[in-house]
Structures are given as structure tokens and as C-alpha cells.
Amino acid sequence: MNFGEQLKEIRTTKGLTQIELSEKSGVALRTVQRMERNEGKPSLYSMNAIGEVLGTNLTLLYAPDLETETRNIMESTDQQLWAIARSRAKFKRSLGSYSIVIPFLWVIWFLTSQDKDINRIPWPIWPMLGWGIGLAIQYMKAYVIQVGSLEQREYDKLKNNQ
């Protein structure tokens, strides 16, 4: 049973409506409604004021249960997976653009260059190198270096030490 359900059960056991609880505690009706629906995090003031009216310590009830903690971990994992997927998709788009634009620049150079002097460095080499370095960095971020992996490992270490 989550915090909102417990709060509602205590309130109805005491025979109070949400409006009566709001008036007696001095907490806005909307806040009481949000607390019972588990929307957002209630302030310590609100929990203490309502707890006094109900004759209980709501801060003890608010401690997250195992189900809530598991759901939060899964949501953060999903967010990490989405971030990885976005960075990989961004890399693939950049690689596609690179594979179209750079050969096009070489064709332009080949068709417009009057002197094909071997000692001279062709100008398309510079955008090719600059963009290539950027692509290499994007690749490393997307496939080699996992952004949240270090944080996750540290979190797991702390969790296991408790």
C-alpha cells in the first residue's frame, strides 16, 4: 500500500473528508488531493500539519516502499537507455551526412582544380579531418563510453555496502 492509499485510509477511518482535513490542518485542499493521489512530493510542513490532525506521523508512512523504489530504478534505467539510443541515432545520422557530403566535396575539388599538384594538400582534406574527428568523438560517446555506467557502478557499490 502506497503513501496516498495509507493517508486516505487513515483519513476515512477518522471520519474526515478531504475538505475537513484541509480546513483543520490549514493545508490547501489541492495539496491533500495530490497527496492522496501520490502526485509530487509533499512538503514536510504539509505532512506534519496533516499528521497532527490525524494523530499520526506521516513522514514515517512516506518512506518509499520496495515497489516504488524498484519502479524508480526501472524508470531511470529506461531514461539511460533512451539517452544511449539517442546518441547512437545521432551518430548514425552524422555518419550518413558525412558519407554524402565529403565525397561530394572531393568531386567538386577534382572537377574544379586546375593543377593536380601532388605536393599541394587538397582543400577537402580539412573538412574531412575535422568532421572525422567529430564523428570519432560521437562514436566513442555512443558506443564505447557509456555516460551513466560510472554513476551506476558507484550506486551499486553503495547499495551493496548497506
TrEMBL record:
<keyword id="KW-0238">DNA-binding</keyword>
<dbReference type="GO" id="GO:0003677">
    <property type="term" value="F:DNA binding"/>
</dbReference>
<feature type="transmembrane region" description="Helical">
    <location>
        <begin position="124"/>
        <end position="144"/>
    </location>
</feature>
<feature type="transmembrane region" description="Helical">
    <location>
        <begin position="95"/>
        <end position="112"/>
    </location>
</feature>
<dbReference type="InterPro" id="IPR025698">
    <property type="entry name" value="2TM_dom"/>
</dbReference>
<keyword id="KW-1133">Transmembrane helix</keyword>
<dbReference type="InterPro" id="IPR010982">
    <property type="entry name" value="Lambda_DNA-bd_dom_sf"/>
</dbReference>
<dbReference type="InterPro" id="IPR001387">
    <property type="entry name" value="Cro/C1-type_HTH"/>
</dbReference>
<dbReference type="Pfam" id="PF13239">
    <property type="entry name" value="2TM"/>
</dbReference>
<keyword id="KW-0472">Membrane</keyword>
<dbReference type="GO" id="GO:0005829">
    <property type="term" value="C:cytosol"/>
</dbReference>
<dbReference type="Pfam" id="PF01381">
    <property type="entry name" value="HTH_3"/>
</dbReference>
<dbReference type="InterPro" id="IPR050807">
    <property type="entry name" value="TransReg_Diox_bact_type"/>
</dbReference>
<protein>
    <submittedName>
        <fullName>Helix-turn-helix domain-containing protein</fullName>
    </submittedName>
</protein>
<keyword id="KW-0812">Transmembrane</keyword>
<feature type="domain" description="HTH cro/C1-type">
    <location>
        <begin position="7"/>
        <end position="61"/>
    </location>
</feature>
<dbReference type="GO" id="GO:0003700">
    <property type="term" value="F:DNA-binding transcription factor activity"/>
</dbReference>
